[in-house]
Amino acid sequence: MSEIDKHPAFNALRRLTPARLRLDPEGGPATLESVLDFQLSHAKARDAIWKPVDWEAVEAGIGGAEVIRVHSRAEDRGVYIRRPDLGRRLRERDADTLPEGPFDAVIVLADGLSADAVNTNSAEVMTGLVGAFSDLKLGPIVLAEQGRVGIGDEIGERMGAKLVVMVIGERPGLSLTTSLGAYLTINPRVGTPDSSRNCVSNIHNSGGLSAEKAVAKIDWLVRHALKLGVTGVGLKDNSDKILIE
Amino acid sequence: MKFEHIAGGETHAFASLAQVMAAATPLRSGDELAGIAASSEANRVAARYVLADLPLTHFLNDVVVPYESDEVTRLIIDSHDAEAFAPFRSMTVGDLRNWLLSDAADAVSLAKAARGFTPEMIAAVSKLMRNQDLIAVAAKTEVITRFRSTVGLKGRLSTRLQPNHPSDDLRGIAAAILDGLLQGSGDAVIGINPASDSIQNCTDLLWALDGLRQEFDIPTQSCVLTHVTNSMEIMESGGPVDLVFQSIAGTQAANEGFGVTLSILKEAQEAALGLKRGTVGTDCMYFETGQGAPLSADAHHGVDQQTLEARAYAVARAFDPFLVNSVVGFIGPEYLYNGKQVIRAGLEDHFCGKLLGLPMGMDVCYTNHVDADQDDMDTLACLLGAAGVNFVICVPGSDDVMLSYQTLSFEDGRWMRSISGARPAPEFEGWLARMGLEQMGPDRAIPDMSAMMKRMGLAAE
Question: So what's the ipTM on this one?
C-alpha cells in the first residue's frame, strides 16, 4: 500500500509544496519507492550536466540567422566544472574568428550547466530574440561551448557590442533539468562583475517563464539598457508592469 | 624562517607560511583553482614535514593575512588567551597532534585550551591528521549551548528542521514542518531559508514559526536565515527573532562581500540578547560558513581555503553562537570536487570548529554538479555521528526544493541517532514523549493527525 493511500488526510498537504513529504506517522526507513524516485531524479540532473549539447540541431533550430561557433578555454566538461575561470574566456584561436562590429547587441548561447536546457528550450528563445531585435544592428549569433556567463563579456568586447545577451543552461535541480537563464550586460568587458548584469532566470515550459514571456522581458530590459546605458543594480526590472498594460 | 624539507633527495622549499599550509592540505579543487595547491604528491607530504616541526609560537608572529588591513587577523591576535596557551608554548604542530591524540586531551583540557589556540594552529594540525584522527579528537570535545533547548550534550544529536519552500508558501512550509516533527526533527532549530529576503516576508515567516512553536509549546527555536541587518530591522519593529543568522568567512574582505563587519555582528547580538527570548540559555547567534567562500569573493589572500575556513570560526566564537555549521558541499565543485573531498572537508570543519570551542554542526550536502551522491552523504553522516557532531540539517526526502541541493532527510537524521545511539536534546526529547512522537514504528500509537493538522492551520478545506 502506498503512503498516499494509508493517510488520505495528507493528500491535501502534498499539494501545498513540491517537497518530498513523507508524512507517515509510522515512520521507518525511507521507502524503496522514494529512494528510487530520488535516484532517478539525481541521475537525470547528472546526465543533463555531463552530456554534450547537440550543437548541429541547435544551429538548425535557430533558423536562418548567421551563427558562429566558439569554444571556451575549458577543453572538456571535467575542466569546465573545476575551472570556472577558463569557462569565462575564449579559446585563443576562436577569438579571431569573431567579426568586429560595431553592433547594438550580440546574442550568445552557451551550454552552461545543462545540455538538456539548451537542447530542449533554446530554439524558441533564440528565434524569439532574433525576431524581437529585427530593428537593431544585431551581430551573428555566437554558440559558445563549455561557456560560463562571463565568456559573453569577451565575445561582446571583441565584437564591439553595446550590449550582450547571454542565454545559458542553468544548474539542474532534482525536479527540473531544462531551465535556461539569460544575462544582460551593457558595455561588456572581460572581468565585468555580476552586479553589472540583469538576469532573467527560470526560463522553461514546465511552469517556469515561457519562451514567449522571457523574450518579452529580455526585450524590455534590452531597450531600457540601451536607452539608459546601464545594466545591473542600476536597471530595475519593471517589465511585468509593462507586459500587463 | 626557512620552510624547506628534503625528501628522497629532492629539496622542497616554500616561500611563506601560507604556502606551506596550502601545500600541506589534502588535495581539493579550490586550492587548485587558486593556484596554491601542492606541486606534486611528494611536495604535499614535504610540506607536512615542515609543518610538523613548526613551533606553535610561530603562528603568533607570522600571520597569513596582514594584521593592519584585516580585522579578522586583529581579532585572532588581540583575543589570543596567553594563559590558555601556556601549556602548549613549547610544542610544535606535530607535538600538538600527538597531545590531541593522547589521553591527556579530554573534554575538560580541550575546552580549557580552546581560547589558547588560533585558527591557523588548528588548521595546521588538522593537515597532519588522518580522517580517523579528526574523528577521534572531535569526539572528545563537548561544546554545549542553550536557548530553549540544550544542544551538544554527550550522547545527543540535534537536527535543524529546514522546511524551505520555493515561494515561501506558509502552508507548504507548515506541511514540511509537520513532516519533520513526526520524525523527531527540529531540536536544534526550525530554520527557513527564505525565497524572498524582503523584510515583510521574513517577518511573516517569523510570526508563523513563532505561532506554531507556541501553539505546540515546542522547546526549540526558530530562525529565518536572512541578512543580519534585516534581522536587526525586524527586531527593531518587534518581530519575534530567536536566533540571528549570518553567513561569515575568514577574511575581512570576504565578510565585506557578505555585507558584514564584526561591529555589525556585535550590534545584532546585543539586540537579540536584549529580547531575552531564551528560556534555558542566552546563546542567540547562528552562523554558516563554507570552504571556498573567500576564494569565490576574490578575498583569499593566497591562503588555502581550509585555513580561511578555520579563521571564520574565530569570527563565530567572538559572539557565543548557539549554532554554527559549515555548508560543506554547497559551495560547489570548483572548491570541493567530489565525495572524497567533501567528506574530508566536512571532518576538518567539524574538528576545527570543535577545537576552537564552537557548537559545530554540518550541512551534509552536495549540489548536482559535485561528483557525489547520497552514498557519500551516508558516509559523511556516519563519520560525523561518530565524531559527535552537535547537529545536522534535515529536509523532506533530502531534496531542498528552494535552494536546489541535496542534504540529509528526516529519515537520515533518525538513522544517525539510531546507529550512534544518540538521543535528541533533552527538552525536545521530553516534548516528543508528551506528543507521542518519541519512537517510530508499528508499535507506536499514531498521533491524531487531523487534530494536529487543524492546530497547524492545515485542516482540509
Answer: 0.93
